[in-house]
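Open question from group meeting: does this chain pack into something compact, or does most of it stay loose? Before anyone orders reagents, we agreed to write out a predicted structure and look at it together. Recording both the input and the output here so the notebook holds the full record.
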Amino acid sequence: MKILHVVHGYAPAVGGTQWMVQNISERLVADYGDAVTVFTTVAYNNAYFWDRRQPAMQPGVEQINAVTVRRFPVFNRLGWLRLNVARVAHKLRLPGEGWLRGLYFGPLIRGMTRAVAESGADVVMASAFPLMHMHYALWGGERGGIPTVLFGALHPVDKWCFERPMIYEAIRRCTAYVAYTGFERDYLAQRGLDPDKVTIIGGGVDSSAYQSADGPLARRRYGWGDAPIVAIVAQHLRHKRIDLLIQAMPGVWRHFPEALLLIVGKRTDYSEHLECLVRAYSAEQQARIVMVSEFSDQEKVDLFAACDVFVLPSSHEAFGIVFAEAWACGKPVIGSHIGAVPSVIDEGVDGLLVRYDDAEDLARAINELLGDPGRRTRMGQAGREKVLKNYTWDIITGRFRDLYGRVTQR
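Structure tokens returned:
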């Protein structure tokens, strides 16, 4: 099968969607013998779509693990003007203001629609909204008579990005839609979209990599000893609510004064704000907050294994692949009772849910798990069993391949 994937960034760009598309693409080639091409941008991160100061790769075509990757240049000028025109139009509820937001988000790519139409692919899959490449993929697929699958990764809580009629019109027009969770499918049904058009696939992890995770090695490397470790693994982005976890730690230290907060993730412009929050604590408390921003894939796995409790109090997640990564290491998780997260975490079985934006409730849940090692073990084991049953890359890739086969046969 000749498959075209369209995504806003691709390795060495990092991010949940980028990682998902890379793994599916490489496994379709290796396991099924498919010819997979990826259309993407030169960006390392989404900020490049409106900020020329961000780093970028060179446009062109290359082979990465037998996947053909074509990187398109992006128009990223006038970012300030695009943003403020979109803001004013949104505030005044002007007709077409959703498209103005789309023009701000980008990526603005000349020629991608035509390239999709002329690709000769048997099927096109694009991920993820709210970015404009989703529409290029749909338009190109329609123009070229190619079945188009949209993998939206919707975050309904984020009204600025996702409350735009153009997104749901695109979903109505595509051949098939992929959702991470039942929450996303039900949300679309509430908006009048056909739930039979939706296939729930979920997120994937390499379970074998986590079997070799060495938590004690990471503890020795950083000199953490046997201290209880609360961890979050996420880019330093505002919606991940790392700030809330930092604010919850005094409530944890009252019961577990030796506890460490481990923050693992790439730095962004938001990192300075997080560091300011940390500096507000005493020197002794600051020493109990560790930020690791540069790490290899193996070290990331070891850091997951080193923690006792994994926390992600994000305001919105389409799935939250880091929950599955923590479970793959046999760790219990804590998430916020908002959006799709309650459809990922089985409350009381493999993790706990807390009230969103409530540092006190978050500290309570952390203390509850730190104080009960047996419960942590049971929850972590339940999570690992769920991953092995539902979320390995072999399973996820097989689900995509089955879907592609169905849409090409219609």
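Observations to bring back to the group:
The chain has a mean pLDDT of 95.
The chain has two domains: 2-204+392-409, 207-390.
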